[in-house]
Amino acid sequence: MSLSPQKQEILQLLLLNDEPLKAADIAKETKKEFQPTMGHLLGLIRNGYVTTPQKGQYIITAKGKQALGIPQTTKEQAITILSYAPHDKAFNFYAAVGKPLNLHAHSLRDFCNKLERADIASIEFHVKRGDFEAWFKGLGDEELSHKTALIRQKNIVGEDLRRQLRGIVEQRYLELAKLAGQPIPTE
Predict the structure, then answer these.
(1) Residues 55, 91 within the same domain
(2) Are 70 and 149 in contact (CB under 8 A)?
(3) What pLDDT band is residue 183 in, cutting at 50, 70 and 90?
């Protein structure tokens, strides 16, 4: 089944939200009327792209992620994605082209910590260029790369950008740690 733009937009919204959403919230976020949104959700459920963990709440399935071009992550891939990246493969934060900040992230967990310390102008610079997407893809994480691209397309700026980016990276880190069977820190 090829996805209509409306169904694709709903799946992308659900991908960015790791918690189940209500149909009314989906309609509001996608700026669509409730009834057509409900019709699209029912079609997505029928095709196995969306499920309802509780009545009236919707969440994307693995099949829904695949429909967006995101492959399923194996335990071995999760372990690789979470591993420490040597300095030549670390993410290097810049203020602008040719202006390094001497701030490096060697793993997803480290990235979250460094994201809090990075200047917001640096974060905006890297998001606009697609640098975070490329680094996540280089780590082997297609899903996180795709989520970051969706955030870039929303043209979010400032502290809201930092908050949303950190939220998707932290959530993904927790998912991968669980999949890899690694202990989850309780800081």
Answers:
(1) no
(2) no
(3) confident
Whether residues 116 and 133 share a domain: the answer is yes
In 3D space, the residue among 75, 59, 81 whose CA is nearest the CA of residue 178 turns out to be 75
Evaluate whether residue 143 is within a structural domain: yes
In this predicted structure, the answer to whether residue 1 has a pLDDT above a threshold of 80 is: no
Nearest to 78 by CA among 158, 154, 144, 30: 144
Q: What is the pLDDT of residue 187?
A: 58
Q: DSSP secondary-structure letter at 89?
A: G
Task: Say whether both 109 and 154 belong to one domain.
Answer: yes
- Phi/psi of residue 180, each to 5°? -80, -10
Q: Tell me how many domains the chain contains.
A: 2
Is the C-alpha dihedral spanning 150, 152, 156, 162 positive or negative? positive
What is the helix (H) or strand (E) element at residue 139, kind and residue range? helix 131-139
Rounded to 10 deg, the angle between the 75-82 and 158-180 helix axes is: 130
* pLDDT (tens digit per residue) in 31-40: 999 999 999 9
Number of other CB atoms surrounding residue 10 within 10 Å? 29
Work out the number of other CB atoms within 10 angstroms of the CB of residue 16: 20
- Residue 186 forms part of a structural domain: no
pTM of the model: 0.91
